Every structure is written in C-alpha cells, then in structure tokens.
C-alpha cells in the first residue's frame, strides 16, 4: 500500500490526467449532494439560497436524502453487489477485508457521517473492533459538496491529490493502530436477507423483507434522528474545546489547545523538510486545524498561499495536510453517528478509543503530506 500510494502521489502531482479522474469523481458525488439541496430548499429556502450555508444545512441535512437513497439500493440488492465485487478487487490490492476496502473509497467523497449512515446494516453485522477501524478511518474523509470550496481557497491540484492518497493512508494507519484478524466467514457483505437486517427490523425472522414504503419511512426517520444526534454531539464537543481554551487562557493568555498542539507537532513539521521558521508556522497551522477545522486555516492563508510567501514544497504539504475532516469536532460527529447506528456495546468501544481516532486522523494527514511533499519541491 505504501508503494502504491507513493506511485499515486507521483502520478497525481506529475500528470494532469490523474487529477482529472479524481475531479470527475468528485463532481459526480457533488451532483448527488446538490439534488439533496433541492429538497432542503423546498422546505428551507432561506437557509439554502445564501452565499454561505450553515454547517448544519450544508453537511448534515443532505443525510436526509442520501441515506434513504443508499438504503433503497440496499433493499433492491444493488449496493451489496457493488460492495461485494468492488470490495473484493480492492481487498486484493490492500490486503484488508472487503467492506473496509470499499468504505475507504465510499468515504472519499461521501463524507464520514453519510458514509457511516448508508453503511448501517454492515456496521450492525460487524464486531466492535471492526467498527472501531471504520470510526478511525472516518477521521480522514471529506465531503463532495465541500471540495469545490476547498479548491477556491487552496491550490486545486494538491486538494485533488490529497483525497485519494488519504484513502490508502487511512487503511495503512488503521491496520497498524487497530489490527483486526477477519476470518473468511466474517468477511461478508450484509444484505436485506441477512441476520443484520433481521436484527434491525428490516426483515422478518424468515429473511423476508418488510414492505418497501414501510422500510423507506423507517429509513427517513432514522436519518432524521441521526442528524439530530450528530448535531448535538458536535455542538457539545466544540463548546467543551472552547471551554478548555478559556480555562487555559486564565493560566496565561497565550496558552491554548492550538498552541499546545502546535508545539507537539513541530518535530513532525520539521521532518517534512521545511526550514525551522516555516516548520514552526506549519505546526501552528496544524494545531489550529485540529482544534477548529480546515476552513479556519484555509481562510488565513488563501490570499498568500499562491505567492512567494510559500515555497512550492511548503504550499504542497500544507494544502494536503489540511484536506481532511481530522479535528476535535469530527470526533463528536463520528461518536454521534455510531450512537444512532449500533448497539451500546459497540458504541462504548468507539467512545473508549477517542485518542486512537485523533491519532489516526493526524497520522493519515502527516503521511499524505509527506508522500506528496516527496515529489514537490
């Protein structure tokens, strides 16, 4: 996987055709999200037809359309078939189970909460440690609807390069941090006729599917419940991080989570091949991105990123590092998503490993930035 990802980094940074392929895929997923906005605009036109949509509307409300759509594909058997064969092909390349390999691609543009939501049947079937792997991988995704905004603020070629590189690195990192042996009999794809569907109430004990519109209604209601759970968790996590910053500020005005993480990240920034001054500034950007989000950092550098203030190497590694959802608020999103999708036992395993989730997101971003940086000087 490391060799493949290095090749991918070289191909995407050196040849425009590679970036075009990724761009086309992103555009396809973006169209799917835009269809969701049509439904949202019907009910809430004042919240969609604006210059900048609120995060709740832009990121969470599309779940109300995307989840039922993928549930329909599961109901009629299309999605399990795609996962089975695409996952099998990816599994040969990555050496990982079929669903984990497929999920890596699924989250590449669909986003963490959406990808988790449409995979609910599979998550119910898998054991807790495999669910933890999925949670850790979810720290390194992006959402198709946001890719366009990214490319308006940072160099597009590095944004589009980072997205597929993050996918393979997420598999590499999670297989090291959370190695799970999956025997052949457990490397299966959930279907509407399987045990997971029966336990979820989507099929009776004989494996017979419930009536379509009853199933669809439950899917829509489940998506709505999931949106509220995720929103509540994100609000709480962001507020708690702000409270910690305020308490640290009482000790000394310059002390904050961003600065602490910036100091911790400095050695890794220096190992990227940056001069000490640039490495220190890069580390501060890294800390700020982890505590807030990627848009905060992008907004700070968008006017200067294309100027001589940044070397080509610095420009590449910074852009790639910030192109993911790896931050504290994403932890809240993922925990909230799992709380609405799996039983308490599996959710507790994920909640007990928040540190691994953060480390996974950070390591994937660092690996991706380093791999791209090797070819851009």
From TrEMBL:
Keywords: Cell membrane, Membrane, Transmembrane, Transmembrane helix. Residues 159-373 form the Concentrative nucleoside transporter C-terminal domain. Residues 56-154 form the Nucleoside transporter/FeoB GTPase Gate domain. It is found in: Cell membrane. Pfam families: Gate, Nucleos_tra2_C, Nucleos_tra2_N. It comes from Ligilactobacillus pobuzihii. This is Nucleoside transport protein. The keyword Membrane applies. Residues 1-45 form the Concentrative nucleoside transporter N-terminal domain. Belongs to the concentrative nucleoside transporter (CNT) (TC 2.A.41) family. It comes from the Bacteria. GO terms for molecular function: nucleoside transmembrane transporter activity; symporter activity. InterPro entries: C_nuclsd_transpt (IPR008276), CNT_C_dom (IPR011657), CNT_N_dom (IPR002668), Gate_dom (IPR011642). The keyword Metal-binding does not apply. The chain crosses the membrane at residues 55-82, 133-151, 220-244, 256-276, 316-338, 350-376. PANTHER family: PURINE NUCLEOSIDE TRANSPORT PROTEIN NUPG, SODIUM/NUCLEOSIDE COTRANSPORTER. It is a multi-pass membrane protein. The lineage of its organism: Bacteria, Bacillati, Bacillota, Bacilli, Lactobacillales. One of its GO terms (cellular component) is plasma membrane. Signal peptide: none annotated.
């Amino acid at each position: 996987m490391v060799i493949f990802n290095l090749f991918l980094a070289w191909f995407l940074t050196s040849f425009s055709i590679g970036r075009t392929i990724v761009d086309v895929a992103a555009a396809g997923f973006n169209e799917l999200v835009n269809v969701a906005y049509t439904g949202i605009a019907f009910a809430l036109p004042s919240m969609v037809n604006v210059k900048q949509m609120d995060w709740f509307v832009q990121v969470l409300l599309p779940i109300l359309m995307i989840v039922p759509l993928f549930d329909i594909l599961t109901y009629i058997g299309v999605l399990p078939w795609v996962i089975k064969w695409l996952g099998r092909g990816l599994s040969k390349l990555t050496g990982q189970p079929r669903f984990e390999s497929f999920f890596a691609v699924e989250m590449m543009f669909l986003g963490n909460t959406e990808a988790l939501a449409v995979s609910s049947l599979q998550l119910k079937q898998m054991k807790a440690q495999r669910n933890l792997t999925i949670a850790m991988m979810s720290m390194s995704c992006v959402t198709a609807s946001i890719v366009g905004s990214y490319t308006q603020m940072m160099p597009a070629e590095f944004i589009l390069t980072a997205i597929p590189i993050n996918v393979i690195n997420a598999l590499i990192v999670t297989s090291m941090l959370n190695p799970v042996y999956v025997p052949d009999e457990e490397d299966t794809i959930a279907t509407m006729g399987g045990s997971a569907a029966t336990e979820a109430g989507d099929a009776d004990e004989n494996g017979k599917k419930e009536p379509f519109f009853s199933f669809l209604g439950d899917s829509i209601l489940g998506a709505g419940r999931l949106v509220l759970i995720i929103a509540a968790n994100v609000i709480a996590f962001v507020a708690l991080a702000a409270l910690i910053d305020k308490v640290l500020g009482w000790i000394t005005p310059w002390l904050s989570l961003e600065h602490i993480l910036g100091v911790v990240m400095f050695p890794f920034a220096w190992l990227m091949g940056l001069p000490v001054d640039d490495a220190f500034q890069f580390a501060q950007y890294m800390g700020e991105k982890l505590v807030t989000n990627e848009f905060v950092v992008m907004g700070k550098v968008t006017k200067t990123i294309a100027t001589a203030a940044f070397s080509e190497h610095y420009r590449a590694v910074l852009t790639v590092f910030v192109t993911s959802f790896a931050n504290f608020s994403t932890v809240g999103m993922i925990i909230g998503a799992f709380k609405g999708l799996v039983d308490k036992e599996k959710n507790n395993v994920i909640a007990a490993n928040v540190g691994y989730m953060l480390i996974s997101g950070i390591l994937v971003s660092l690996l991706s930035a380093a791999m791209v940086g090797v070819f851009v000087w």
